[in-house]
Amino acid sequence: QVQLVESGGGLVQAGGSLRLSCAASGLAFSTYVMAWFRQVPGEEREFVAAISRSGGVTNYADSVEGRCTISRSNAKNTVYLQMNSLKPEDTAVYYCAADRFGVVGRSSREPNKYDYWGQGTQVTVSS
Known about the structure:
Elements: E1 3-7, E2 10-13, E3 18-25, E4 33-39, E5 46-51, E6 58-60, E7 68-73, E8 78-83, E9 92-99, E10 116-117, E11 121-126
Parallel strand pairs: 2-11
Antiparallel strand pairs: 1-3, 3-8, 4-5, 4-9, 5-6, 7-8, 9-10, 9-11
């Protein structure tokens, strides 16, 4: 049974930082492209960042470029999202996702490319 479990969300003031983690189990983690998405109630799920199987290639949404860093540890079956200089508009539920056959690029921004999803972790940024 595949499980993706996010953690690290919370309430932070604007300008602050958070580090999200997503622990994976039940899958060959190193063979999956991993990504982070976010969603605000009533809106579509939005791409945040993706990372290749080896960790050598990353891709970011324009809205977080320069403020967020995605990384992974294949030894720990975990993907991370370091978020700095947080803004109120970053408030959302953050989800990690796993894609068995994709590559990091334009297609990795599409939610329907992903095979597995976590349950999400809430990030709230106060102004």
